[in-house]
Amino acid sequence: MKILILGAGQVGSSAAYHLSREEANEVTVVDTRADVLRELQDRLDIRTVVGHAAYPEVLDRAGANDADIIVALTDADETNMVACQVAYTLYHTPTKIARIRSAEYMSAKMLFTQEAIPIDVRISPEQLVCEYVEQLILYPGALQVLEFANGRVRLVAARADRDGLLVGQRIATLKEHIPNTEGRIAAIYRDGLSLQPDGDTVIQEGDEVFFIAARQDIRVFMSEMRKLEDPVRRVVIAGGGNIGVRLALALEQTNQVKIIERDPKRARHISEQVAKAIVLVGDAADEELLLEENVDNIDVFCALTNAEEANILSAMLAKRLGAHKVMALINRPSYAELVESGSIDIAISPQQVTIGSLLAHVRRGDVVKVHSLRRGAAEAMEAVAHGGEADSRVVGKTIEDIKLPPGTNIVALVRGDRVIIAHHDTVIETDDHVILFMTDRRKIESLEQLFQVDVSFV
Amino acid sequence: MNWTVVQRILGLLLMMFSLTMLPPILISMVFRDHSWFPFVEGFALTLIAGFICWLPVRKHHEDLRLRDGFLVVASFWTVLGTFGAAPLFFAETPTMSLTDAIFESISGLTTTGATVLTGLDYLPKSILYYRQQLQWLGGMGIIVLAVAVLPMLGVGGMQLYRAETPGPVKDTKLTPRITETAKALWYVYLAFTIACMICYMLVGMDWFDALCHAFSTVAIGGFSTHDLSIGYFNSPAIDLVAIFFMFAAGINFSLHFFAWRHIQVKHYRADPEFRAYVFVLVAVSIIVVTSLYYTGTYTAAGDNFINGLFQAVSIATTTGYTTANFAAWPGALPALLVFASFVGGSAGSTAGGIKVIRWLLIYKQGVREIVRLVHPSAEIPVKLGNTAVGFRVVDAVWGYFSIYIVVFGVMLLLMMAMGLDQVTAFSAVAATLNNLGPGLGDVAAGFMTLGNSAKWVAVLGMLLGRLEIFTLLVLITPTFWRR
Fold this sequence. Notes:
The complex is a heterodimer.
Chain A: E1 2-6, H1 10-20, E2 26-31, H2 34-43, E3 47-50, H3 56-61, E4 69-72, H4 77-91, E5 95-99, H5 103-107, E6 121-123, H6 125-138, E7 142-148, E8 153-159, H7 174-177, E9 183-190, E10 193-195, E11 208-214, H8 218-225, E12 234-238, H9 242-251, E13 256-261, H10 264-273, E14 278-281, H11 287-292, E15 300-303, H12 308-320, E16 325-329, H13 333-340, E17 346-348, H14 350-362, E18 367-373, E19 378-384, E20 408-415, E21 418-421, E22 433-438, H15 444-451
Helix pairs in contact in A: 1-14, 6-9, 6-14
Chain B: H1 3-18, H2 22-31, H3 37-54, H4 66-84, H5 86-90, H6 98-109, H7 125-140, H8 142-149, H9 155-164, H10 178-202, H11 207-218, H12 236-249, H13 253-262, H14 266-270, H15 272-295, H16 301-316, H17 333-343, H18 356-374, E1 383-384, E2 387-388, H19 391-417, H20 422-433, H21 452-466, H22 470-473, H23 478-481
């Protein structure tokens, strides 16, 4: 697939990285900064074009003519919108994805039609990150909460600790523990390596367990992995940027929220926006300030500033001062790996959160949702099974009959409104939404083929 | 340094290269020249060597780093030159010493076209074919070919590609994927070769000569199957076909690719390097032809024209075909032609020399200094067409130029120390470093009269010229090896 990425910022370059890793994609990146592009081209097998992303001449040089997808990720909403419009008008690019940050544009739904501003998919990384953090606060103890089928099914990652009911026992005993709820363990990571779970696998303390269940059953499942934590009440957000403020607005009705912002003017501005949250002016890494605001009593400390180093340090400080749980926004995968095993409970990677929504459009076959996991090594995916028994490789078959590539599991199905947790004898029907978990994303191509309707039969 | 990766790729490349010894066996069967056995030996030797290299490290899949790229390319060209010499060394006719065999093989692969063989017309066809094929493989670059057919190189492919392709600006890719870029280049190259072969056959060559000469024409190599080179055919039509394809192969292949992709030719005229390239060729041709005419070197006016034009294009593009003994031409002509080879072809072509674009940039900087004298406070960027050239590129051009002069000087002294006279030594160094082929004085016909040590210096010069000095030179710097 020929993909045109506009803007080589953080999201743009990580998108280029993820997309160019897949053999089938040909990626071209456009940016105005030649030095950034040169550095990017040294690392990735892509083509780069220097120039303003919305100019027709630049798009032409970048091969917009035969591009299948254009992904506009520059830091200006307006550039992204115009670029998509130019691509649509001049080159009839089939799929146009753009980052739209400001909520003002996003709320005007009528704007993004083919006649006005033709953008098929609008991504707001801030919005996505904010929702992601919200989910983590909603399910205390979870490392990741990912939604499928419009939120009907959730995939949750949690670290097993010694108080979990299932810890130290075989997975097969799960049925006896909670006889009335259905769910399934999708993957287990022990010391960073994935295990292929079956009924005889024994869950150990410290394992990172991915399980899937219907929305209402998540808490029951969580109690199998670790002691249920009390719902979060007190939240401190470090950094009053877009993400911080959005999160505060989302949480302030149900939780006690405090925002720490360094810039007095910005703090003033935020305080006018929020209703109940308290805005504090100061440095998030200031010990005095944190102690004064009873950091030892708070449930969650989220460091969400632009500077990842500052996030790491302030989160570590808060943890040492007694904050129950700390999260930090970290862009670099290597930093995330460094801190997540010890000093910081959850590292939030904005790129990983965002990339999934891009990947869903790049995949062949009808893929509704993709979540990138474990810094891109694993992937969870929701695909629709099309066709009939004759021309599909999955429809009409039981799960054990489907030839899945190694490291891949079918974990659940969504049929209409019903959530079906996958068993070896479950039969897949036409238009089922199939939720898969891949521990090795290099097998993605064989998986894509599985869900494509074979044209030769039609 | 990531030795296992280097070793693995080297092993793979050697195994791939061993396959190129199979077509000569076929040729040998067709002509029944009874010299297929050396190729079987060469094939087996190369394949086994590659296999032994690859086997212990086949499971290592780390990425290639920038430094590893240099090491792979430099060591591959060296190793390849040696293994490529195997069939020549094993062959009974011609009988060649190891030095001669390696000289011939490297001269082929680097598209130099200098030979130590005489009596080409009486050699087995398979040996002749093999020499031409070496040139063809070396022309577009065997590593570019490897990048095209071995998809596992990935990002590392870019490092290899950059270390092998000539020219100062190497970041432009024709397509997003490096394997696709390499494939595109080889398709264009292949298309030119086929077209060239057909044209040669149309103007009267037999298919074997046409194939062999097509190989060395589009590669800007210069090997021939006859001692008299193109002069053997004594046909103006063949000369003209050769002139056209030498000219085309000296143009940047990305321009050809663009023409092929968009079915247009107007972009050639817009390219500053192409215009400078044409200007140089036309200027040299006019000077040569008029000088020949006024000195009355040939009695027939047509001979003056066709020989002058042919030699001008052949030497200036660094091909090295001959239709006349230009070393014996009057006045400054022999020196002028050798000097023209310093300019060479365009960047990204199969030609040697310093490359037109570098000269163009140097020239533009000279002009800039003159303008500065008149307008001391003017801001004058160096421009190619309408785009300003970055400082890094301009710096790199000067760096290349100065290292070229130093290398040239050192090699000239070495050659003279080995007993060559000044003219011979100068032209021998120019002929090897520019990947030209024929020189003046004692090396006008070939390098057979040189001593062994002088041949080794020439081998070094050819490798330095093909890999544009830096790729090879970087390996002998301490910085490269420091961790």
